[in-house]
Write a structure and sequence with these properties.
Elements (H helix, E strand, L loop, with lengths): L15 H17 L6 H14 L3 E5 L2 H12 L5 E5 L4 H9 L3 E5 L10 H7 L4 E7 L9 H10 L4 E4 L7 E2 L2 E2 L6 E5 L12 E5 L2 H11 L22 H11 L2 H19 L5 E3 L6 E2 L5 E5 L5 H12 L28 H9 E4 L7 H15 L3
Helix pairs in contact: 1-8, 2-8, 3-4, 3-7, 9-12, 10-12
Length: 377
């Protein structure tokens, strides 16, 4: 008989005060009849621009949409976009949908981010853009160097910061390094709007074009003149209301997750077969994920199954289990052969539960269960 799930992989939390605030905002929208591109969306944009220290923020219906819009504005169609192999499908899919060919690059073990040397091997005269991905809420210390190297060649860098709201590198916010950045407000993220995302940039022209693309390519909200091959990428006012309320807790949420991560760090020191993946000293992770390495030879599927069935501990999904260059949908992409580090990190890491409202005893339960199962594998 399976043990009830005592520690879930993730949990979405809204306080009663949050629910009242969201309800108030929703009621105002319903009374006004303004259900899209309204005051909640504008407030969310302004607050997110402030947090990321960007001049412009454009609310959209997903982080994927933010990426594709930026790539379309940059004109990548018919050229190549370099993407790290260990990211989510949507990072590469956005480039493909924008008309580009993807080149996958290998990553570094320390941060799971693009490896500088591997990136250099993928750059060529066809490169239209590079996408940097901040895995698990960690911004690689090499980010400024990569952006600068690409700028010297006239290649724009976009940050896929879906995991990284509120993360910092040497005091500089995630999303403020490249020409543009995308954020996700999917339910599992630290900040959620249910569904939604944000595109941020300092480039006024890029922001202006993004607003055209997100609303069916129309020259203006009240016009029926279409100047771009856009799509319905709008963020609704109800979604924006949820996101705006949640966003105001961002610093509080990161403090809570940091405390949980520190408890994990201390507790895992005595567990054989697993070790934490520490964030670089110059990076303030937001701990969207708490990543740890399994020793070589540990059977991850068996470990996860036994933790759930015997101890009621659910591990979150990996980031990511299978690198993109091995996914069937991307067969025949420009990246040929193996990308050994991406393959290794995808195969050997786990993500331990970490979420708002998690208790110290939950961390203790997870670590005790992990030690017990690992001792028998």
């Amino acid at each position: 008989m399976n043990t009830p799930l005592l520690v879930p992989p993730a949990r979405v939390v809204f306080s009663e005060e949050d629910i009242r605030d969201i309800t108030r905002r929703l009621a105002a929208s319903l009374r006004s009849g303004a259900l899209t591109l309204g005051v909640n969306g504008r407030e969310l944009e302004a607050e997110f621009a402030r947090i990321t220290e960007r001049k412009h923020a454009v609310a959209v219906n997903s982080g994927t949409s933010a990426l594709e819009i930026a790539l379309r504005v940059l004109g990548v169609a018919g050229r190549e976009v370099v993407v790290p192999a260990n990211t989510f499908f949507a990072t590469a899919a956005a480039a493909v949908h924008a008309g580009a060919r993807v080149r996958f690059a290998d990553v570094e073990r320390e941060t799971l981010a693009l490896d500088v040397t591997a990136l250099e091997r993928q750059l060529n005269e066809h490169t239209a853009a590079v996408i940097l991905v901040h895995i698990g809420g960690v911004v690689s210390p090499h980010t400024p160097s990569i952006v600068a190297r690409c700028a010297e060649r006239g290649i724009p860098c976009i940050e896929d910061a879906a995991h990284a709201a509120g993360a910092l590198l040497a005091g500089q916010p995630a999303g403020s390094f490249g020409i543009a950045a995308s954020f996700s407000f999917y339910p599992t993220k630290i900040i959620t709007s249910g569904e939604g995302g944000m595109l941020v940039t300092d480039d006024e022209q890029l922001a202006r074009e993004a607003r055209i693309y997100l609303d069916q390519g129309k020259a203006g909200f009240t016009q029926n003149l279409h100047t771009r091959m856009g799509y319905n990428w709008r963020l609704s006012e109800p979604h924006a209301a949820i996101g705006l309320t949640h966003l105001r807790h961002l610093s509080e949420f990161i403090r809570e997750r940091t405390e949980l991560a520190q408890r994990y760090d201390a507790a895992l020191a005595g567990v054989e077969g697993v070790r934490p993946l520490p964030a670089p000293v110059v990076c303030r992770s937001n701990y969207y994920k708490y990543l740890a390495w399994l020793d070589a030879g540990v059977d991850r599927p068996t470990l996860k199954r036994r933790l759930r069935e015997e101890y009621g501990v659910g591990l979150a999904g990996e980031v990511y289990e299978l690198p993109l260059h091995l996914q069937p949908v991307f067969e025949g992409t420009a990246a040929a052969g193996s990308l050994p580090v991406a393959e290794e990190v995808c195969a050997r890491h786990i993500c331990l539960p970490i979420y708002q409202g998690m208790l110290a005893e939950d961390v203790e339960r997870v670590v005790a269960a992990l030690g017990a199962v690992l001792s028998t594998l």
